[in-house]
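Notebook B, p. 112. Complex prediction, attempt 2.
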Amino acid sequence: MIMWDNEIVKMLVVEGIGPTLYMTITSTLFAYILGLPVGILLVVTAKGGLKPNAFVYKILDFVVNILRSIPFLILLILAIPLTKFIVGRSYGPTATIVPLVIAAAPFVARMVESSLLEVDKGVIEAAQSMGASLWEIIWKVLLAEARTSLIVGATIALGTILGYSAMAGVVGGGGLGDIAIRYGYYRYETGIMVVTVILLVILMQILQIIGTWLSKKLDKRITG
Amino acid sequence: METMIQVRDVRKVFTTQDNTVEALKGINLDIHKGEIYGIIGMSGAGKSTLVRCLNFLERPTEGTVCIEGRDLAAMSEAELRKARTEIAMIFQHFNLLMQRSVLDNVCFPMEITGHKKSEARKKAKELLQIVGLEEKAAAYPVQLSGGQKQRVAIARALAMNPKILLCDEATSALDPQTTKAILGLIREINQKYGITVVIITHEMTVVQEICTHVAIIDNGELAEQGTVEEVFSRPQSRAARKLVFQDGNKYAVMAGKRCIRIVFKENSSFEPVIGNMVLQCKAPANILLADTKDIGGIAHGQMVLQLPEDTQIANRMIQYLKDRNLTVEELNDYVG
């Protein structure tokens, strides 16, 4: 039996929830910094897009597909040299952010692409007919009209990255997943593993509730 | 009169992977300032492509489009965008920004033209008053009916102070009564602000209701153009006839029997012309189609009659109608 003393609770919060949230939120942020422009570019340069450019589109499409098809566990290991180069070491929460961003950015790009493609072509045409520039259409029409869908996408991205961050425990990535592997797998302390899982479930629920609430609140297509 | 839109030899070819479609086959069109110009055609005739060539949402494959004498094709992208701010457009499906309030939708074009926000809101409120929706300023498009949405779209179009208003099937998604109201509003705008209006439609009634001029487009070509009265009272081309008798096919079974078409345009609507004709000739005539309207005490519209087989009586009927100054046309070869 494990002792549920302050030490353990402290460890779960300081070494578990803290780093997990840090990894998840920071990685999502960076994944959007990279993925959002790529998603926009995919929509704009696609055939029939606002500025069709087969060359740019095909390259981006190819890179996104390649990165999306590498399983995260393998990416974790493949990315080690790059991680060492950027962060200086290959373990711990900050180091985990590097592979998380590489895995999540193309995923985010696809999410953004599909959200923007949902925007009514007629509305884009209307903006064009008013003499709107490309930038104005992206900013005031595409992103503004797709915002609900973008928030739903961000919620899904956060959830996926939360799951990935737990996987990084295998290589000493820190956070709840790390604790689950070290205590539950290597030391057979099932109790702690169960607790980490419950904590992950709770975190996921909170993210989902906030995301859903926000997307509904901002959606003006819902009456009443 | 000053030419607003000049279209010369415009061709538009769409190329897909396995075939090419020639949507426009050399269109020539002159639209003058202040006209309400109808472009009518069956679906697939190329009318939507044509209207999109007028503001270069579609670039013609060949030919020129000049707005107030300036060739759109010769403009840089920035100049074209600027030119577009003077050519407003409204659409069949309204195309409002769903995530913006009514007021912000009307402000949208003024954001593009770089108006101050306070100024834009003030003007937007005035425009909403013109279209009769000032109390809906804070509402969102989803809360509006189709007719109200089109009014917002019209207010949005006016926000650019346009010289031209393009209407792409603007009333096709609306019921007849709302259509009438929206067309009334467009006419009012045309008269009050002198905005040249181009109306794309597949409905002859829309043209009759509002347009001063009409061009009939059929299979990528202009079949006929002129004032509405000319085209309507004497349709020359097959396409025009088909549109004027919009349910024409139904009369195909009458082939061989004698049918006439009567056009009303100056007779008093108080005179029972057909009734008197029947009484005087003492033979019945079958009314196959009647589409007449009383506009200010004058009958406007058309009627198709099937005459008795007796040639003498039939001739007498035709004479009677001609004596009443009606345009009478035999439809022997008419098959719709």
